[in-house]
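CORE FACILITY INTAKE
Project code: CF-77B
Contact: R.S. (postdoc)
Sample description: multi-component assembly, two entities in total
Requested service: structural model of the whole complex
Turnaround: standard
Below are the sequence entries exactly as provided by the requester. Do not edit them.
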Amino acid sequence: MSVLTLTVDGQDVAVPEGATLLQALRAASASVPVLCHLDGLTPVGACRLCLVEIEGSTKLQPACTTPAAEGMAVRTSSAPLQQFRRMAVELFFAEGNHVCAFCVANGNCELQDVAVQVGMDHSRFPYQYPVRHVDASHPQFALDHHRCILCTRCVRVCDEIEGAHVWDVANRGSHCTIVAGLDQPWGEVEACTSCGKCVDVCPTGALFRKADSTAEKHPHRDRPELLRTAREQHRWHNQGGAKA
Amino acid sequence: MVSAAPPLRIRCCGASGCRSAGSEALQQALEQAAAEIAAAGGAGAVPAIKPVGCLRLCGRGPLVAVDRADGGSELYGGLQPQQAKTLLQPQRQALASAAIATDHPFFSLQQPVVLENCGRVDPGSIDDAIAHGSYVQLRRVLEGVSPEQVREQVKRSGLRGRGGAGYPTGLKWDTVALQPPGPRTVVCNADEGDPGAFMDRSVLESDPHRLIEGMAIAAYAVGADQGYVYVRAEYPLAIARLRLALKQARARGLLGPQVAGSRFALQLEVRVGAGAYVCGEETALLASIQGQRGTPRPRPPFPAQHGLWGAPTLINNVETFSAVPAILRRGGDWYAAIGTASSRGTKVFALSGAVRHTGLVEVPMGTSLRTVVVEMGGGSPTGRAVKAVQTGGPSGGCIPAPLLDTPVDYESLLALGSMMGSGGMVVMDETTAMPEVAHHFMRFSRNESCGKCLPCRAGTVQLEQLLARFVERRARPDDLARLEELCTMVRCTSLCGLGQAAPNPVLSTLRHFRGEYEAACRDPAICEPHGACRLPAATSPGGEP
């Protein structure tokens, strides 16, 4: 396998051919926030938090979907990038109803973590207070749409890893919503295997176990990657030497 | 204008614009009147009544063109069915008030290439299309021109994508053709969704065989054997005529396993959209053809490398493909000689808004906006001054009247913060307030955002609300700063071209009409203690900044 060398914030880094910029960034210990990306799932480049500057290109590119290329010079934290990230997080908070104080994911929420990371303590944009609903029709799990950031991790994990494709996106723009089955109550969707992978990958408290109360959600966001390497490379994390 | 002989032929426009003005009833009345003349068995010839496509001046519909025996022709607009009989008489002075001068700049400054047969050919008849030269170039190419030679001519022509972005067409064809061996697809983007744009619809409704020929030549040039025309569902007449044309072409062996008896095979099908503007974005369009939710995906990989079902896919819009037969007939150099150094050839514009002559114009690239809007369009019908011209729809911007001498080409419009877009040109007079225009387009973008990426989904909502504060004159100075900041963020960080271009109507009006935004701001610290604010300045007449 050939190796690509590039620079991330001035630091030289080598990655195998076929790696994404995000992998290169990690190899260089540079950190960009991500919300839609999750290792083990097909990247979609939707949250726009991992945008980076590439020398010679006028357009910002998402690190999660952009393939690394030989000689690339990547910048991850210029002043405009930091400003854009902060605004993006503000927009996330303003478009939903995120109330950390009584959320199941409080203290274990990626949106909260990103807000802390980019230094967002309040939104300068008016909160929209959208009228959304809660689907508690499933016996074990529930979906609180108020907390959904439309990252589509649940859609992808159910389709790509579990193979059930219970979830999808309906409507468009700010009316977008995650739907179960043919826009049915979750509990009525026969395709659902109740595996809980969607709950495990959800970055916020939108999908949760009914047994969990405030700040009690403990997701397992490494499951897709674990299952994918197990299936595709026959490597098992619990058999040692799994993490390459 | 009037001759003693009865007319030879009456061409009735049957495109959507004239149909909505009653062209079907008029055509029926004309056919009936012609039948009566035939039944009377007069010595003179019976005028032929021919359904055709767009006769350009859509605002005066229903349009009919009268071809005289002496080779001249007359154009009439707004006729009622009861006037049909008079139209067929040798003496037509009674209709003088409905006559349209065809030597007006609106017609005389046009240089039809894509539209050369629009209004001449019967869109429902392949025989008529062939009689007007359709499929000659396809046959010639299949008989002895290599795909490389075809691409060479397209490259020489300097043709650039007419859908808005202006990517060099020949380069795109090469990129698809030079992909590793395997199946390839051609796709025609006929999802014309910009408000004020109706060029592609008119071509589909007026001369569908031109598009089919252009696509077939493109498919041959890039090695594709499958093609799709993606038409928006809001164009039912265009879809019906295109489907009929495809059926006729298949029956004539001009599409199918052996195109025109050659070894080149091409299947061409229609795919109908479901009402989403974003499906005009190429990756969303491909997803929609594949039966998936129409959302864009990050590029690269570009469709030319990895498109429909993973195959290299050539996507051009209706006008681009429709220019190809003429380029091959007269040569790439001929086409390249028209227009400017960077924008070659002609462009079709749909002229509408506060303009006397509404309709389709095809002019050489580089023609000034003033020529199109004032000379050809006749300026504002109320006599008020033209304030701005909006080009490029919700992705474009407003060009102010003092800059009307700007030549219309890709780079000049971009430099002014607008863009060529697909060719919609909406003229605004001085009664139009620019924050309202920006608000209108932002509402459109908010409505049409697919919701996949955050900046477009949530940013357009916030931008629309911010703009409403300016429209309602309750903005504060810091709203102006926030507006610019958010516009920059949405432009720089959105996933697809739609989101990236959504702030353009705001940014371009801020650039050219900043005074209107400032005048809509109220600074309580300054205004209220003195009981005065900057509001009155904005409402005074002639509020040009």
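Facility notes:
- Chain A touches chain B through 35 residues (CB under 8 Å).
- Residues 4 and 15 of chain A are 5 Å apart (CA to CA).
Invoice: internal transfer
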